[in-house]
Design brief:
Length: 345
Amino acid sequence: MTSLGVGDPPGTWLPINSALQTFLAMGALEDITALAKADDIYQDFLPGFLGTCISDDKLYGLPFQCSTPVLYYNKTAFEKAGVKAAPTTWDELLETAKALTIRQGSDVSQWGVTIGGGWHDWMFESYVRQNGLVPWTKEKVMFDAPESVNALEFWLRMAQEGVMPTASTWQGSANDFMAGRTAMLYHSTGSLTNLRKSSPFEVGVAFMPKNKTFGASMGGGPIHIAKNQPDAHKQACWTFARWMTNTANQSMWCKETGYLAARQSSWDSAEMKSFVTEVPAAKIALDQAAYAGAFLQVPGYHKVREYLKSALDRTVIGEIRPDVALREATVNSNREIDRMLRRRG
C-alpha cells in the first residue's frame, strides 16, 4: 500500500481479494481484460473465482489461492460425545457444541466450537450470507441490517452458553484444534493440509452450517498487475501471472496447502482426481463455493475490517449490544468508503 501511495508500485503482487476496490480507487490496477480474452482465461478459470477479480465487467487480476472458511471437526471427539454427524444448521451447531464442550467448574478443557480470530470478520460475512444477505456493495456496507444483527446475536448466544471462547487468534485457534482444546473450528480451507497432517486424530471437514441458506465468503488472493509501469514490464508480469496460475501449479498449490485450484483443468487432471479420491475433504470447499461470493470488496477495506472486527470483539465479550456495535461499525465504515470514493472521483 505504501509503495502504491508514493507512485512506486511493485510490478505484480498478491493481496486479499477484498483490496480490489481500494486499489481501483487508487488507480493502481492494469485492466487485463484484453489479455485474458486472447487467452483461455474465461474458458478454464472457474467463474466464481474469476469473479473476485472483476469490477464493472473488467478483469483486474487472476485468482491464485482461492479459499472459503469451512467447518473442521475432531472425529475422535465426536465419537466420544456420541455425535454421529457434523451439524448442518445453526441450531444443530449450537446443540452439537454443547455436547462437545467439556467443563469442570469454570475450567474448559475442550470448547465445542471456535471461530478463528483475526479473520473472524471473514467468518462473520459468511454467517450473514447464510441469512441471505451480502452485507456490502461497492459503495457501502450494511453491517447493521437485520440479517447481520441476527448473525452476531447468534455468536453472542454461543459465547453466553459457554460453548465458544470469547476470543481467539488465527494461529492459536488452529493450534487449539490440533491439541484437542476445541472440537470444531471455523478456519480457512487453506489450512486443510496442515490440520490434516498435524492433528493426532482424524479431521473431518464440512460445509459451514446454514441458517436460511448455505453461504460463504471467498478469501484468498488474486495476482494483480500494476498500471503505472512500462508495457514491457506489464507483459512480463502477465507471463508470470499466467505461469503461477497454470494448470499444474494450481494443482500443486491445492494439494500442498488446501487452497482451491481456480482452474477447471486442474480439477479435471488425473493428478487431482487421484488426490480427491485419497482426500475427499479437499473438495468440500469447492462444492461450498457454489454458495459463495467475494469478501468485502469496498474502498478502504483495511479500515472497514478493523471497524467490523472491533464491533464483533466488543459484542462477544459483552461490552456492547450487537445492534449498537454494528451500527457504529456501519457509520464509521461508510464514512471511510465515502472518503475513498471522493478520492477516486
